[in-house]
Amino acid sequence: MRKRIVAGNWKMNTDVATGVKLASDLMQLLKVQPAPENVGVAIAPPFTHLSEVSKVIDPSKICLASQNCASEAKGAYTGEVSVEMLKSVDVMAVIIGHSERRAYYKEDYATLAKKVDLTIQGGLRPIFCCGEVLEERNAGIQNKIVEAQLKESLFHLSNEDFSKVIIAYEPVWAIGTGVVASPEQAQEIHKFIRSLVAARYGAQIADDLTILYGGSCKSSNAVEIFSKPDVDGGLIGGAALDAAEFHKIVQSF
Ligand code: PEP
Q1: How far is the CA of 253 from the centre of ligand 1 (A)?
Q2: Ligand 1 atom with minimal separation from the 177 CA
Q3: 1: pLDDT strictly greater than 90
Q4: Residue of the nearest CA to atom 8 in ligand 1?
Q5: Which residues form the pocket of ligand 1, taking CB atoms under 6 Å from any ligand atom?
Q6: Ligand 1: which of 6, 172, 175, 212 to mutate, judged by most atoms within 8 Å of the beta carbon?
Q7: pLDDT at 41
């Protein structure tokens, strides 16, 4: 059965103490009002916070994720953090290909494919981000852009490995802008993504695939967006920095 997920991407926000408090507050809220059945909750704090945050969350209630990983397994790569290092602090999932990484750090298709491979080889789940920029949406080529992103960095995977992938569709024009995609726009492209996966991996794998929407999602718009049949939850940026607001989004199914 297809899993619903709400994942919080904290980006480069909070210091360690504030991040630990945010995670503890969310844990308390989930103890009082657990996530709906079949809804998973994940948080992706900065690397520096992972070890401390892992001590205050119950992994059966909150999955610990990272915002990135190295594209190499180990060695002389100053400043990088490997999948093995992430595993050692109980990380279970890795956000890969966020539009900020693609835009500011020039992460290309091949680099992202290597990160996906290492993540899966390490037994972790990739949360793979895709999505078009505003000019591409205005030109009506969003499907073409997303198709290339998936084909070039994911579609080399075997059926078994692809089954570990979570996809997050995040239109870049909606990230951090307050402009949210309409539920119809989200549904249309999520359905398209599922059809691409069905053509490559078959109907069952496509049906089981979790596809998250990301881009200015909040408790005030989550219910409508999550009600669409091919939208299986959200990747949440700004609104994940407030435990009560994020908890409300978790309840939006
Ligand atoms: C994100 O960065 O993944 C994101 C969805 O951000 P926001 O919710 O702030 O638009």
Answers
A1: 19
A2: 10
A3: no
A4: 237
A5: 9, 170, 175-176, 214-217, 235-239
A6: 175
A7: 98
pTM of the model: 0.98
Q: How far apart are CA 77 and CA 18, in angstroms?
A: 29
Q: Is 190 a catalytic residue?
A: no
Cα–Cα–Cα angle for 25, 215, 186, rounded to 5 degrees: 120
170 is catalytic: yes
Catalogue the long-range contacts made by 216-224 (C-beta closer than 8 Å, 24 or more residues apart).
216/174, 216/175, 216/176, 216/177, 216/178, 216/179, 216/180, 217/180, 217/249, 218/180, 218/245, 218/249, 219/245, 219/248, 219/249, 219/252, 221/180, 222/248, 222/249, 222/252, 223/252, 224/183
**Alpha-carbon 10 to chain mean position:** 11
Residue 183 · residue 224 · CB < 8 Å:
yes
pLDDT of residue 77: 98
| Token pair 């309409």 in the structure block, residue | 182
Pull the structure tokens for residue 184.
């119809």
Residue 43's domain is classified under what CATH number? 3.20.20.70
| Angstrom distances, CA of residue 16 to CA of 45, 84, 85 | 9, 22, 18
Domain count, the chain: 1
**Structural domain of residue 155, as residue ranges?**
4-250
CB 221 within 8 A of CB 182: no
Which ligand 1 atom is the nearest neighbour of the CA of 238? 9
* pLDDT tens digit sequence for 148-185: 999 999 999 999 999 999 999 999 999 999 999 999 99
- Helix 243-250 to helix 16-32 angle (10° resolution) is 40
